[in-house]
Amino acid sequence: MSTKTVSRSASSTVAVNTVVTSVLTVRTSGRGFVDLTREVAAFLAQANAREGAVTVFIRHTSASLTIMENADPSVLQDLTTALSRLAPENAGWVHDTEGPDDMPGHIKTMLTSTSLQIPVREGEMMLGTWQAIYLIEHRARPHSREVVLQFIGAA
Fold first, then answer.
1. CA 120 centroid distance within chain
2. Is the CB of residue 35 less than 8 Å from the CB of residue 66?
3. CA-CA distance, 107 to 121, in Å (whole number)?
4. Could you tell me the pTM of the whole model?
5. Residues 37-46: pLDDT tens digits?
6. Least enclosed by CB within 10 Å: which of 19, 70, 92, 126?
């Protein structure tokens, strides 16, 4: 039998007095990951965010968002390979009007996320040491993607 130790920090309470929203436009270079962590941090600094939560939402159905390791680039390569294996092109998809990568892009978006929420404390996102916020472009060619950033909390 293993023993388990759990601890919890002291709670903090603030009154919500701020809602700040902005749209980030990202030009992708085609299939792959784009690190948005710095852009989200800059948005929080501009919003004078102190404590609350930031929501990151992508307005597309063939691109998505994730929080993933940022230390070793091979992680992102392997994730791209895994997603391609889960939703391959030219697999006889009925929806292929926009090309053979469109339906697989929709499936990959369904398997990942279109919205992330990250706690903010003392003006900083509470991401882990090796975590970063990524936009995942599932289409082969470059696209312009819109990402909504919204901070709700205390400034």
1. 15
2. no
3. 34
4. 0.93
5. 999 999 999 9
6. 92
* Separation of CA 64 from chain center: 7
Locate 108 and state its tokens.
């990959």
**SS3 call for 107:** helix
The per-residue pLDDT for 69 is 95
Residue 8's alpha-carbon distances to 12, 129, 155, in angstroms, are 12, 19, 25
Which parts of the chain sit beneath pLDDT 50? none
Q: What is the pLDDT of residues 37-73, one digit of tens each?
A: 999 999 999 999 999 999 999 999 999 999 999 999 9
Cα 56 to Cα 53: distance, rounded to the nearest angstrom = 10
Per this entry, what is the length of the chain?
A: 155
Rounded-to-integer distance, Cα 5 and Cα 128, Å: 20
Residues 121 and 51 sit within 8 Å (Cβ to Cβ): yes
